[in-house]
Write a structure and sequence with these properties.
The radius of gyration is 19 Å and the shape is globular. With 176 residues, it is of the alpha+beta class. It has a 6-stranded antiparallel sheet.
Amino acid sequence: MFQDLTLLVLASFAILGGAATADRRAAEALSARLLASHSATAVLQEICDRRAPGERVRAEQLAPGPEAPAWVRETLDAPADAIRHRRVRLMCGPEVLSVADNWFLPGRLTPEMNATLEGTQTPFGVAVRSLDYRRRTLSVRYLDDGSGVLEHKAVLVADGRPFSLVLETYAAAAVR
């Protein structure tokens, strides 16, 4: 009986380990797609299109955090009062795909872009698409703490100047 219990426990660990490995591989695949794209929103829209054709990714605004931290100000090369913070949940239907903190310089956007970001559920990447920006990833971190499965930190650059810094935490729903 003890031997049967030991085998059951070992089998359970193998199954759980396999699930963790599969989750990690899925997070790595998502990360590779994000690294290959200039727009995280476009990657999330592709995921949403497969799951819910016709559904658009939307940004549900959350309460912004405090003043921009020093590392954000340094990256954007701007004083705190020149930086706006937009915190959103990027949704596909009822599913949360990611939570994004976006610190950006409204002075480098058009008035229309700023109005869209202020008053709609339009994702940042969609609102600023016409800037023909490039995404430069600063860090990638795989998570297993319950907050998500993957974190990307990136700076968005247009005309050689950074205008946005994003910290994105991708939910398990983004890799299912």
